[in-house]
Specification:
- The chain has one domain (about 5-185).
- The chain has helices at about 5-30, 35-60, 65-70, 80-85, 90-120, 130-155, 160-175, 200-210.
- The radius of gyration is 29 Å and the shape is elongated.
- It starts with a helix and ends with a helix.
- Helix 1 (about 5-30) runs parallel beside helix 5 (about 90-120) and helix 5 packs antiparallel against helix 6.
- About 80% of the residues lie in helices and about 0% in strands.
- By secondary structure, it is an all-alpha fold.
């Protein structure tokens, strides 16, 4: 299978399962908490989407040189931050596309649940279309406005953001023992020539002497 197609299918399935899990958990929370706490759940989902968008953008804007220096000084999280920058395409794809789109989809579903709850406490003369339009507008404004505000911060403070993400990954790795974002290094080592046997070395030496005219 083509590598790009395999990667697209992997991202699609990952987004599918993550969206199901997050939406399922949020639905349970909305069913057990009140309207006010449900709004906080919605704000939390929007914040997660904006935060991951910041990390994805910062990973593409950050430079490697500062992290090489910090890794040499054994700064905590510098090695993980360097792996983030080296894998900027994968990090940006996961943060901006997978998590970002998933957060947008789930926040829309939560918004629909909030509209239903609002209609239960609203007077009968209030139109459901008006309420749903206002809720959708608020969600879109928070999501797009938050990402627009975070882009400038992600570009200007890219190294600090990536280092903070590296520290979080370092903490997770120290607890779980796993290693994230492994970077495959190409093998540039030259193949060693097979060692010649002593008899072959003597024959090659005699042949070289005969060609040079040193043998009597």
């Amino acid at each position: 299978m083509d590598q790009r197609l395999a990667r697209a299918l992997s991202v699609g399935f990952t987004t599918f399962f993550l969206a199901i899990v997050v939406n399922f958990v949020s639905k349970i929370l909305l069913g057990r908490v009140g309207l006010v706490l449900g709004l906080f759940v919605l704000l939390g989902i929007v914040f997660i989407g904006v935060a991951f968008d910041v990390i994805g953008t910062a990973s593409t804007a950050a430079k490697r040189q500062p992290f090489h220096a910090m890794a040499a000084k054994r700064v905590y999280g510098a090695r993980q931050a360097l792996r983030i920058v080296r894998s900027a395409d994968r990090v940006a794809n996961f943060c901006n596309d997978v998590v970002g789109d998933m957060a947008g989809t789930v926040s829309g579903a939560i918004g629909a649940s909030i509209v239903i709850r609002l209609m239960m406490v609203m007077p009968p003369r209030v139109s459901e279309t008006v309420v749903s339009t206002i809720v959708v507008g608020i969600i879109a404004g928070l999501t797009v406005g938050g990402k627009a505000w975070s882009k400038n911060m992600a570009v200007n403070d890219a190294e600090q953001i990536v280092l903070a993400a590296g520290k979080i990954i370092a903490g997770i790795e120290s607890v779980t023992g796993a290693t994230f974002l492994r970077h495959k290094r190409p093998n540039h080592r030259k193949r060693s020539r097979p060692r010649e046997s002593p008899g072959r070395q003597d024959r090659n030496r005699k042949r070289s002497d005969n060609e040079s005219g040193t043998t009597p």
